[in-house]
Design goal:
The chain has 294 residues and is α/β, with parallel strands linked by helices. Helix content is 47%, strand content 15%.
């Protein structure tokens, strides 16, 4: 709850589409217009990694940090192996996630928030701008055009998420909050990473603050880890879903959309770049998840 509340407080068409309608009965009436124009009590919540952006935001952010010598090659290679395993296995390990948390915080500790924000702007242009899924971006724009607010909800640092949201013209972002004192990172988090159930808590908190009716809101994600968030809203969408989310969505009649094609869709969770070597090498830069403990 603390992570969700902290995130909420901190935050306040050109790709090929394969639109899989949930199974229905022949002759089922057409769905009402969605999003509903002018419904100010409705909003949309988008996961970031592999939902709006191909790959992970930290994958790309870390490439920029490595380029700027925030960590060394050995650390990058150690993370590369773990990130490749994570992507291929499609599962998470609590110890690895703890290492990721500790490593990311150790990298930014002592740096000024303003410094990382400035670097983040540069990295967006270098590595992220051309990796936005146009189809998902069009979904977000439809909500904006209907007069609704659109929020990113991600485990990525809220500063990174805020840059991406601003560049895409979205309302704002909910992300993991790293503690800072007098504008300098302390190396600690406020609460926990915004992941899984914490995302749902963040959305609840934001909805209360914004006077939103969650039954009229939409949420979009690629991951079964976000089922708690998707289950909160009246209009859940599975975007580029992993196998668990695809099965869950089909069983419950949720809408599915997949903007991957061919080989890109064959392996769940592998960013569309160029095979495991390129993916892992770039991902290694993300936050050096396997940074050696000293």
């Amino acid at each position: 709850m603390l992570a969700g509340e902290a995130a909420a407080e901190a935050a306040r068409k050109t790709s090929r589409e394969v639109d899989e309608l949930a199974p229905g009965e022949p002759g089922k009436p057409a769905e009402p217009e969605f999003p509903v124009r002018g419904d100010v009590r409705a909003a949309a919540f988008f996961d970031l990694d592999n939902t709006i952006m191909q790959g992970a935001a930290l994958f790309h952010f870390g490439r920029g940090l490595y380029k700027r010598k925030f960590f060394d090659t050995r650390e990058l290679l150690r993370f590369a192996w773990q990130q490749a395993w994570f992507r291929l296995a499609g599962s998470e390990n609590a110890e690895h996630m703890q290492d990721a948390r500790d490593s990311a915080l150790s990298i930014v500790k002592g740096h000024r928030v303003s410094e990382l924000m400035e670097i983040g702007e540069e990295i967006y242009d270098e590595y992220m701008a051309d990796r936005i899924w146009p189809g998902t971006r069009a979904l977000a724009q439809a909500h904006l055009d209907a007069g609704q607010k659109v929020w990113l909800v991600t485990a990525a640092p809220v500063e990174t998420a805020t840059i991406i949201a601003r560049r895409l013209g979205l309302t704002g972002a909910l992300g993991t909050v790293a503690e800072s004192v007098d504008g300098v990172y302390t190396g600690r988090l406020v609460g926990e990473p915004l992941h899984g159930p914490a995302k749902a808590e963040a959305v609840r908190a934001l909805a209360a603050a914004e006077n939103l009716d969650l039954s009229r809101c939409a949420a979009y994600s690629d991951s079964a880890n976000d089922i708690p968030m998707l289950s909160l809203v009246g209009h859940p969408y599975a975007i580029n879903p992993d196998s668990r989310l695809r099965a869950h969505a089909r069983a419950r009649g949720w809408r599915l959309r997949d903007y991957r094609t061919g080989r890109k869709a064959a392996k769940v969770g592998i960013p569309a770049a160029a095979g495991v070597g390129a993916v892992a090498g770039g991902a290694a830069a993300a936050v050096a998840i396997q940074r050696r403990r000293r």
